[in-house]
């Protein structure tokens, strides 16, 4: 069923659409994933590290000023402390950058500056330690420190600039992300709708095909195939319940004359209207089918011959008196009916049908517009001589 659907133009279109949808969903999905990664990056720690590092530079400068003015060993220790602090800040920033994989490539060009600054600060540390013994070295120490301070400021400003740029990009990514999510949602909804439509279409196609397989195109009644299926099941049921099952064959009299006199389209209309009437007059539990040109069959479960003949006579009379609408016939059409009934037994549908057919033949032979019945001979009982099997029916005494 699915393969047949895919071979049809609409099926091909649906599969192309589904493939496109899958591809688009995959692209959108990967974009959303990477965008989510970018958008979720948190640069707050990095910014606070940079700000702290920036604050350390003026503190070192003030300490150097003080050291030059009052070069005490305590003051020089203080200078040494701020140099170590600056170095620590620098390393913190470096490891913070390493945690942001989307920033690394943007600030790669600053790597050399980091290493250079790091070694210059280590040098400065050594110089500060020497200055503890020789206070006259505080002066050159201050000059080098000022120079390093300038390089530090440049590096940190540059870093802040990069983080600012990436934050702007982050906001942009967020906007695009929300658009992507909306599009993805719309695609999913349309995929679901397409799927539903395809299922509905398949379901309808299946119903139409089933309908075509089981019904007669001209009259809308069931066809012979369906009748045989239903009759087989009804026969099994009747055999199990030992119930009655009647079969009625109805044939329009002299239908050839209708065709010959009024034309085939009128003949078709007669068939349609008689079918409609028969359907209206028969019970919903019975199965009415058109099994040949102008021949119909009515299968009646749980119906005796007597009741079936009564139904047959009612149908025959109704057809006889009913004037067909929109067709100007000289006389109303009539029908001949053959009825048969089985009671339990083990007849096949073909056997039952042959008895109804014999009865119909008889009705035709006896002048038409009448109902006749033919019953199958009573089927042999399994116990031909009941007395010979009587002992089987006597229950054995129960030993106490
Ligand atoms: N209009 C129409 N005619 C059909 C259709 N199927 C079969 N027939 C015609 O039904 C006619 C049946 O003719 P016969 O089998 O001779 O039977 P009849 O003329 O009804 O005579 P009796 O049955 O003996 O009363 C034929 O002319 C078929 O062509 C159909 O679907 N539409």
From TrEMBL:
EC number: 2.7.7.65
Keyword Zinc-finger: no
Residues passing through the membrane, by range: 177-202
UniProt KW Transmembrane helix keyword: yes
Signal peptide residue numbers: none
Domain of life where this protein originates: Bacteria
Domain GGDEF intervals: 243-376
Cofactor(s) named in the record: Mg(2+)
Keywords: Membrane, Transmembrane, Transmembrane helix
GO molecular function: diguanylate cyclase activity
SUPFAM superfamilies linked: Nucleotide cyclase
Catalytic activity: 2 GTP = 3',3'-c-di-GMP + 2 diphosphate
Classification via NCBIfam families: GGDEF
Protein name: diguanylate cyclase
């Amino acid at each position: 069923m699915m393969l047949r659907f895919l071979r049809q133009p609409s099926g091909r279109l649906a599969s192309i659409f589904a493939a496109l949808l899958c591809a688009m969903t995959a692209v959108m999905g990967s974009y959303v994933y990477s965008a989510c990664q970018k958008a979720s990056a948190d640069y707050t720690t990095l910014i606070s590290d940079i700000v702290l590092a920036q604050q350390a530079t003026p503190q070192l400068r003030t300490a150097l000023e003080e050291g030059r003015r009052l070069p005490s060993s305590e003051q020089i220790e203080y200078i040494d402390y701020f140099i170590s602090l600056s170095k620590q800040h620098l390393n913190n920033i470096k490891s913070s950058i390493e945690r942001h994989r989307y920033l690394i490539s943007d600030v790669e060009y600053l790597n050399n500056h980091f290493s250079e600054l790091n070694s210059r600060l280590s040098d400065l540390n050594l110089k500060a330690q020497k200055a503890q013994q020789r206070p006259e070295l505080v002066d050159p120490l201050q000059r080098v420190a000022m120079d390093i301070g300038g390089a530090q400021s440049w590096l940190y400003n540059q870093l802040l600039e990069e983080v600012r740029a990436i934050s702007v990009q982050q906001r942009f990514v967020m906007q695009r992300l929300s658009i992507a999510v909306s599009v993805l949602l719309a695609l999913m909804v349309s995929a679901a709708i397409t799927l539903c439509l395809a299922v509905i279409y398949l379901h309808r196609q299946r119903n139409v095909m089933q309908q075509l397989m089981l019904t007669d195109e001209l009259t809308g009644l069931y066809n012979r195939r369906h009748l045989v299926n239903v009759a087989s099941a009804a026969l099994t049921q009747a055999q199990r319940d030992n119930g009655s099952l009647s079969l009625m064959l109805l044939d329009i009299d002299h239908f050839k004359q209708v065709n010959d006199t009024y034309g085939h389209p009128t003949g078709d209309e007669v068939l349609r209207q008689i079918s409609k009437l028969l359907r209206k007059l028969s019970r919903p539990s019975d199965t009415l089918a058109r099994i040949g040109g102008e021949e119909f069959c009515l299968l009646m479960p749980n119906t005796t011959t007597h009741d079936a003949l009564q139904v047959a006579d009612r149908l025959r009379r109704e057809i006889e008196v009913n004037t067909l609408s929109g067709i100007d016939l000289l006389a109303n059409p009539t029908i001949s009916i053959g009825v048969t009934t089985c009671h339990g037994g083990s007849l096949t549908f073909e056997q039952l049908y042959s008895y109804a057919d014999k009865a119909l033949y008889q009705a035709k032979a006896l002048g038409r517009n009448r109902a006749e019945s033919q019953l199958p001979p009573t089927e042999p009982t399994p116990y031909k001589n009941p007395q010979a099997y009587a002992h089987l029916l006597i229950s054995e005494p129960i030993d106490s």
